[in-house]
């Protein structure tokens, strides 16, 4: 029996062009204990059902935003989701403790190479620094943040044969989260999960 219930909130506005995120979403759908939600499919007109989304949050222990990095942020529907679902009195404020102690992380793809995401790189900031608004969202709502899982160089990942291993790493991560076999403390401390994933996963891997 799964020890944790994991919620993957997937946001990709151009799925027919997705070479990375769609395989990740498909994999998540086949793991016991994981609920994978395609936000653009469920809300094509952005008419988000706040009650349903809040109930989903209440029913899960680990929350994951899965998305391609668009202009150093999430696709628009994830911002809309945050604006509407994370209400005062539910997610924050003196009475807003619904998300307290839940785990949170981002699983994303980025078009640029890994060396572009550093202080002296093309993008001037690390991937974790670019996600600081989301990290602060997690802090304000009482969730325990973990560093992101990122696939860099997403535009060439398929031709370079890097997607299969990344999908397997993603499966291993999700199974570890479901089975509560993950080093959450260190996952907060590192810059990104990728180089440390095998060390962070405790016990048997898939």
Outline the structure in words:
The chain is α/β, with parallel strands linked by helices and 206 residues long. The chain has a single domain, classed as Rossmann fold, CATH 3.40.50.360. It has 9 helices and 6 strands; from the N terminus they run βαβααβαβααββααα. It has helices spanning 21-28, 39-42, 50-59, 76-85, 127-130, 132-140, 163-178, 184-189, 197-200, and strands at residues 6-10, 34-38, 62-68, 103-109, 144-145, 149-151. Strands 1, 2, 3, 4, 5 and 6 form a 6-stranded parallel β-sheet that branches. The protein is globular. The model has no long low-confidence stretch (mean pLDDT 90).
Secondary structure topology:
Blueprint: E1 6-10, H1 21-28, E2 34-38, H2 39-42, H3 50-59, E3 62-68, H4 76-85, E4 103-109, H5 127-130, H6 132-140, E5 144-145, E6 149-151, H7 163-178, H8 184-189, H9 197-200
Parallel strand pairs: 1-2, 1-3, 3-4, 4-5, 4-6
Helix pairs in contact: 1-7
CATH top level is Alpha Beta
How much of the sequence lies in strands comes to 5-15%
Distance between termini? 15 Å
Pick out the low-confidence regions: none
The overall pLDDT average reads 90
Counted beta strands: 6
What name is given to the CATH topology?
Rossmann fold
Structure, briefly:
It comes from Vibrio panuliri. Helix content is 34%, strand content 14%. With 206 residues, the protein is an alpha/beta fold.
Which tags fit this structure?
206 residues; alpha/beta; Rossmann fold; six-stranded parallel β-sheet; 9 helices; 6 strands; 34% helix; NAD(P)H dehydrogenase (quinone) activity; KefG/KefF; FMN binding; Flavodoxin_fold; oxidoreductase
């Amino acid at each position: 029996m799964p020890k944790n219930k994991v919620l993957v909130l997937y946001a990709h506005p151009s799925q027919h062009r997705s070479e990375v995120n769609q395989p990740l979403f498909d994999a998540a759908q086949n793991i016991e204990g994981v609920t994978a939600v395609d936000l653009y499919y469920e809300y094509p007109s952005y008419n988000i059902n706040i009650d349903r989304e809040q109930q989903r949050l209440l029913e899960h222990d680990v929350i994951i935003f899965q998305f391609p990095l668009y202009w150093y942020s999430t696709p628009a529907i994830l911002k809309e989701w945050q604006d509407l679902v994370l209400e005062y009195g539910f997610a924050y404020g003196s009475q807003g403790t619904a998300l307290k102690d839940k785990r949170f992380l981002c699983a994303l793809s980025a078009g640029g190479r890994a060396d572009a995401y550093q202080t002296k790189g093309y993008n001037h900031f690390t991937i974790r620094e670019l996600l600081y608004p989301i990290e602060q969202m997690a802090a304000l709502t009482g969730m325990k943040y973990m560093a992101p899982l990122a696939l860099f160089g997403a535009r060439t990942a398929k031709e370079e044969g890097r997607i299969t291993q990344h999908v397997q790493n993603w499966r291993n991560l999700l199974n570890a989260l479901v089975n509560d076999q993950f080093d959450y403390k260190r996952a907060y401390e590192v810059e990104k999960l990728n180089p440390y994933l095998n060390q962070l996963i405790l016990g048997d891997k898939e």
